[in-house]
Amino acid sequence: MEAASGLTGHAIVVTGAGRGVGAAAAAELARLGARVVVNDIDEVAARRTAAGIEAEGGRAVAQPGDVSVRADAAALVARCVDEFGRIDGLFNNAALMAIGDFVEYDDRLLRRLLDVNVVGVANCAAEAVGPMLRQGSGAILNVTSGAHLGLPHMSLYAATKGAVASLTYAWAAETAGTGVRVNALSPLSLGHMTRMTDDYLIAKGHADAPFAAPSPESNAPVVAYLLSDRAGDVHGQVVRISGTGLSLMTHPAIMTPVLDRPVWTYDDVDRAFREILSARQAPVGIAYGEPATAAPAPVVPFD
Ligand SMILES: NC(=O)c1ccc[n+]([C@@H]2O[C@H](COP(=O)([O-])OP(=O)(O)OC[C@H]3O[C@@H](n4cnc5c(N)ncnc54)[C@H](O)[C@@H]3O)[C@@H](O)[C@H]2O)c1
Questions:
Q1: Which of 46, 65, 117, 184 could form a disulfide with 142 if both were Cys (CB 3.0 to 4.6 A apart)?
Q2: Nearest to residue 135, comparing CAs of 88, 75, 72?
């Protein structure tokens, strides 16, 4: 059973694994035979997760640190290589959440979120990808959020998660054919972040009851699968798990047809919108649909 897990003996770093999705994923990875480096900015929490895994007969070490500090990210990956001889996976999970209306915009808060959720993700991935490329194998799993599609009251957090999705697409394009895979997860989990959201929405009168979010553990099998050898052909994807629903998310794409003219005047643009583009506007917020095609765009002359 274990030999087929696709994770046996893998050395995997999990950031923000002191609680929530990260802690549940670290436990599941260890249960499936991986050796885990447990990171969190909260040292006590990181050590608690690692000790819990060891108590269950798994293999884990704690490496507390702040992912937004490049030296901490370097030390995290170095710890994995020193301890286990390699790094096969990175679950790039640590993040901060913020909630607030557009008119409450706080630039210092946005900078802090960008630091942890974007710079932190890039720090850890950049440190991990070198050894992975030298090995010719490895899996990086970033964490985005359905919020990045444009949920109200979550713009700052959403912006950081949109950036994570863009990093994922770009890194996947860059590592294609190297043996290194890069994907992202869009999870859903009861915990600190959903409680923050509920408190805000209820206080503002936008909701009257807490949202019934699924457990952190419900996300863990998807994390484990995407970091395992079984997912060897999954690359450049955003995978969504929302309790009972498992799906892929579409990538942003250039909508067809592409209207073409030698020169666009102000009046031509107005006519293009009145005749074609206004009626084709995409819905704002979470929507469902088929993926775009990678085929060349149909270019339609707009005379
Ligand atoms: N909870 C949800 O429903 C939900 C939905 C979509 C996306 N996500 C994403 O899933 C991931 C996990 O969410 P969660 O609900 O488990 O969150 P959580 O707040 O419970 O856990 C995040 C962990 O990251 C740690 N952390 C924060 N800053 C850090 C830093 N600078 N360096 C290292 N560790 C740091 C925290 O101490 C905490 O233990 C996050 O990336 C989050 O944005 C969560």
A1: 184
A2: 88
Q: Residue 175 and residue 3: Cα distance in Å, rounded?
A: 27
pLDDT of residue 1: 41
- In one letter, which amino acid is 242? S
pLDDT value at position 2? Answer: 41
41 lines ligand 1 (CB under 6 A): yes
Residue nearest to ligand 1 atom 42, measured at CA: 95
Token pair belonging to 149: 């599609």
DSSP character for 277? I
Sign of CA dihedral 200, 110, 40, 230: positive
* pLDDT at 291 (0 to 100): 86
C-beta of residue 220 within 8 angstroms of C-beta of residue 24: yes
Is 172's C-beta closer than 6 angstroms to any atom of ligand 1? no
Residues of the chain with pLDDT under 70: 1-3
Ligand 1 contact via 72 beta carbon (within 6 Å) = no
Looking at residue 29, its pLDDT comes to 98
pLDDT of residue 298: 85
User: What is the pLDDT, as a whole number, of residue 294?
Assistant: 84
Sequence-ordered strand ranges (E) for 135-237: 138-143, 180-186
List the structure tokens of 105.
């915009």
What sign does the CA torsion over 136, 138, 144, 145 have?
positive
198 neighbors 210 (Cβ within 8 angstroms):
yes
What are the domain boundaries of the chain? 2-249, 258-301
Nearest CA to ligand 1 atom 1: 189
The question of whether 157 is a catalytic residue gets the answer: yes
Per CATH, the number for 2-249 is: 3.40.50.720
pLDDT of residue 72: 99
Q: What are phi and psi of 117, to 5 degrees?
A: -80, -25
